[in-house]
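Title: Comparing notes on inverse folding

I've been comparing how different people in this forum approach sequence design from structure. To keep things fair, I'm posting one structure and asking everyone to reply with a full sequence. Here's the target:
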């Protein structure tokens, strides 16, 4: 998919975004829901070889004032061909800790500040987490941009965001097909946006410097 020249892309209204062709998510057979440590161990080698993950989390919503979230209940990692949806338990979180803390594996997504805070509260020090939210100044957006607007700007596609699904119960044992599709799409779309922003040199100078340090470290390791 080709990207319009940023300088000539006007600010998009919600109506304009909805009128775009639909975003194409990964096929269901390329979305892996992981519920057990054995399933984690089965993909451990392939996860270790991945340099950049699309990243997101989902948590059961809180509705009462002062109610503390027990999330994340789902952690999503995506590659160009596969999405891994980890239903969080103590042992799965322990399995993911080395990936989340790995300084040489990029985790890219939108609005990751709260995710980082939650992980730190659970004894995980996340590293190499790249928040893309403020990378759209060249399009005229000075504030944070979400996944839906980013996909519209970069790919001229409509990324559906269902409030009903986003506020559903993510702690259930068996996720619905709608939840699975939604969760995979968030992480997959983030990866596509990162690749486009990086290739077009549209990331902020600070993020580019951080990424180049990580990539240089990988080269040195190799």
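Reply #1:
Here's my take.
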């Amino acid at each position: 998919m080709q990207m319009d020249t940023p300088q000539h892309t006007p600010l998009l209204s919600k109506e304009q975004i909805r009128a775009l062709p639909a975003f194409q998510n990964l096929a269901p057979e390329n979305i892996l829901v992981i519920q057990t440590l054995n399933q984690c161990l089965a993909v451990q080698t392939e996860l270790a070889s991945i340099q950049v993950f699309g990243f997101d989390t989902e948590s059961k919503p809180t509705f009462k004032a002062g109610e503390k979230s027990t999330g994340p209940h789902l952690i999503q990692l995506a590659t160009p061909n596969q999405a891994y949806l980890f239903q969080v338990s103590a042992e799965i979180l322990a399995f993911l800790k080395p990936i989340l803390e790995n300084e040489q594996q990029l985790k890219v997504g939108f609005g990751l500040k709260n995710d980082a805070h939650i992980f730190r509260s659970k004894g995980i020090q996340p590293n190499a987490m790249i928040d893309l939210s403020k990378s759209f100044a060249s399009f005229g957006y000075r504030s944070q941009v979400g996944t839906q607007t980013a996909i519209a700007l970069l790919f001229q596609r409509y990324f559906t965001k269902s409030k009903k699904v986003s506020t559903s119960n993510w702690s259930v044992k068996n996720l619905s097909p709608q939840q699975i599709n939604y969760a995979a799409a968030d992480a997959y779309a983030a990866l596509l946006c990162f690749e486009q922003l990086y290739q077009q040199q549209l990331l902020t100078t600070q993020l580019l410097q951080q990424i180049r340090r990580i990539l240089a470290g990988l080269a040195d390791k190799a």
